[in-house]
Amino acid sequence: MKIILVGMGNPILGDDRIGVLIMREIEALYNASHKPNGDVIFEEANLGGLALLDIIDGFEKAILVDSISSGSYPVGTLLRLTKEDFTETRHISSMHDINFATALEMGDKMGHKIPVEFDIYAVEIKPALDFMAPLSPELEEIMPKVVKEIAKRSLGLV
Questions:
Q1: Beta-sheet strands, E only, within 82-157
Q2: Do 119 and 152 form a contact (C-beta atoms < 8 A)?
């Protein structure tokens, strides 16, 4: 199975980069597992919507890891989401603001080979406003556990 794991977020914006950091750690685990066979590709992305389609195009499974600042969960909570969780958006006046579900539907109609399977993870963060800030202590603490959990659930790594 051809799989892509995308770590999302701004790599220089405080806790917003948690998805990128998690992806890098899982890539290191994968490479150290002696299982590397080229079927799993690791990418960083700081964009979403239609732009994300070019990254996931042609893969059978996409694993997306990002931050979320909902205020509904304690900082560091790992959420497992579905693509259907992204059917709402606050702004629909611009193509840059379409939701993920709509982007997937449009991509399919435009001839993109959309993954059949999605694992979508989000880590609750405080709003990320400071460039070059270190990860918050809460995220530093949960990071090893989250990396292992996603690696096990999505790639079967122990």
A1: 117-124
A2: no
Provide the pairing of β-strand 117-124 with 78-81: antiparallel
For 103-144, how does the pLDDT look when each residue is reduced to its tens digit (9 = 90+)?
778 877 887 888 999 999 999 998 877 777 789 999 999 999
- Give the DSSP H or E segment for 31: helix 18-32
Q: Which residues lie closer than 8 Å to 100 by C-beta, 6 or more apart?
A: 48, 49, 52, 83, 86
pLDDT number for residue 50: 73
Residue 57 Cα distances to 50, 105, 110, 112, 125, angstroms? 11, 13, 11, 6, 28
Q: Are 64 and 154 in contact (CB under 8 A)?
A: no
Judge residue 87's burial from the number of C-beta atoms within 10 Å of its C-beta, 0-12 exposed, 13-18 middle, 19 or more buried: exposed
Give the DSSP letter string of 114-154: --SEEEEEEEE------BTPPPPHHHHHHHHHHHHHHHHHH
| Type of residue at 1 | M
Strand partners, 43: 6
What is the rounded distance in angstroms from the CA atom of residue 74 to the CA atom of residue 64?
Answer: 21
